[in-house]
């Protein structure tokens, strides 16, 4: 069994990003130094109905370990049964989502809505703890609070700790902020001071220097990177190089092209061609962001109808030759 220390002691986490962090992207990030991977969030309700569609989101490769499955829901018994169901895939940890701000989720009393229902949140952690104890570790990912007037991350974190979570992850924004505005790292620092279990810090690590800044500002145990890894999966190895006291290697044209092509090839192992060439459009927006002349390339990619065509467009593009 992976220990708590293996998961949380100065580790580089890839954040769950629904629609982006599928197995292919996670493996790519791992090749580039991500150390802990998590599934996209899946509905506990969907899992226990054994829905094929839900289950495909929690499948992972052995190479992705240490690996966690993230579940969401609002009914303690349903989430506990969902977590128990996940155990058949032998994840290293279960992560409960108490941070998702999107309407569809909070309307059902799940995600960050649980930050307004302390008793229910505590009961969820207790029941999932009882369901997975001895099989894997248990984490909870949550936000700073519902809005600026109810920033209850401190008491909420302590409640989750007392209820049986092994570690926590704080995305230092409120539900009302969704994904805009700045993450307030002082919330991470304050929570870290009062917790006795490990805390993963999350929010606004966009470049390797940010990760070092977050560690220094908050003393969090590990850092989690989400959008900062889109189009730049090498951010993890760059952070590690920086933490190890050196300069990090800048990205070259060869590395960028090799990474994009590996991404496409990995994706094709898991999804059909007609899905991959469409999904790669949004991933390629991130890979090509900021390159001179890349707007035209993106338009061409959006019209392309196969991954082979996308690769040809990239090889022929001046955007990359200017790197
Ligand atoms: C497109 C997208 C999808 C996300 N999906 C999830 C998810 O499935 N589960 C989750 O806990 N957080 C999810 N998040 C939140 C991220 O994990 C992370 O907390 C947030 O983006 C802040 O970190 P960052 O600034 O490093 O991106 C998502 C965020 C985005 C932008």
Report on the structure:
With 323 residues, the protein is of the alpha/beta class. The protein has two domains: 240 residues, TIM Barrel; 69 residues, Putative flavin oxidoreducatase, domain 2 (Non-ribosomal Peptide Synthetase Peptidyl Carrier Protein, Chain A), CATH 1.10.1200.80. It is built from 16 helices and nine strands. Strands 1, 2, 3, 4, 5, 6, 7, 8 and 9 form a nine-stranded parallel beta sheet that branches. Strand 7, helix 9 and strand 8 form a beta-alpha-beta unit. Helix 7 runs parallel beside helix 8. The longest helix has 18 residues. The N and C termini lie far apart (44 Å). 47% of the residues are buried. The model has no long low-confidence stretch (mean pLDDT 97). The site of flavin mononucleotide has 23 residues, from loops.
Q: Low-confidence runs (pLDDT<50, min 5 residues)?
A: none
Mean pLDDT: 97
Share in β-strands = 5-15%
- Measure the end-to-end span: 44 Å
- Name the helix and strand elements from N-terminus to C-terminus, one letter apiece: HEHEEHHEHEHHEHEHEHEHHHHHH
**Helix proportion of residues, in percent?**
40-55%
**What does the main sheet amount to?**
9 strands, parallel
């Amino acid at each position: 069994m992976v220990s708590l220390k293996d998961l949380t002691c100065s580790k580089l986490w890839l954040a769950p990003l629904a629609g982006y962090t599928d197995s292919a992207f996670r493996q790519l990030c791992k090749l580039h130094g991500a150390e802990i991977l998590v599934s996209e969030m899946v509905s506990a309700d969907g899992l226990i109905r054994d829905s094929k569609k839900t289950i495909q989101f929690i499948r992972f490769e052995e190479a992705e370990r240490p690996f966690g499955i993230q579940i969401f829901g609002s009914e303690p018994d349903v989430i506990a049964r969902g977590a128990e169901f996940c155990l058949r895939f032998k994840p290293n940890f279960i992560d409960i989502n108490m941070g998702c701000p999107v309407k569809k989720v909070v309307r059902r009393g799940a995600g960050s809505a649980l930050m307004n229902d302390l008793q229910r949140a505590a009961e969820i952690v207790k029941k999932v703890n009882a369901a997975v104890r001895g099989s894997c570790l248990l984490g909870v990912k949550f936000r700073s609070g519902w809005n600026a007037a109810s920033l209850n991350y401190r008491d909420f974190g302590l409640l989750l700790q007392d209820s049986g979570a092994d570690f926590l992850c704080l995305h230092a924004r409120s539900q009302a902020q969704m994904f805009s505005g700045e993450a307030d790292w002082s919330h991470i620092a304050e929570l870290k001071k009062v917790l006795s279990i490990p805390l993963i810090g999350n929010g606004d690590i966009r470049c390797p220097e940010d990760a070092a800044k977050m560690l220094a500002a908050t003393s969090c145990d590990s850092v989690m990177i989400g959008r900062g890894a889109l189009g730049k999966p090498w951010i993890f190895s760059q952070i590690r190089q920086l933490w190890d006291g050196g300069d990090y290697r800048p990205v070259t044209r060869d590395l960028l092209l090799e990474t994009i092509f590996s991404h496409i090839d990995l994706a094709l192992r898991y999804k059909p061609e007609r899905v991959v060439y469409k999904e790669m459009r949004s991933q390629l927006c991130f890979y090509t962001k900021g390159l001179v002349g890349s707007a035209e390339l993106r338009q061409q990619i959006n019209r392309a109808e196969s991954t082979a065509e996308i690769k040809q467009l990239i090889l022929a593009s001046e955007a990359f030759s200017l790197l």
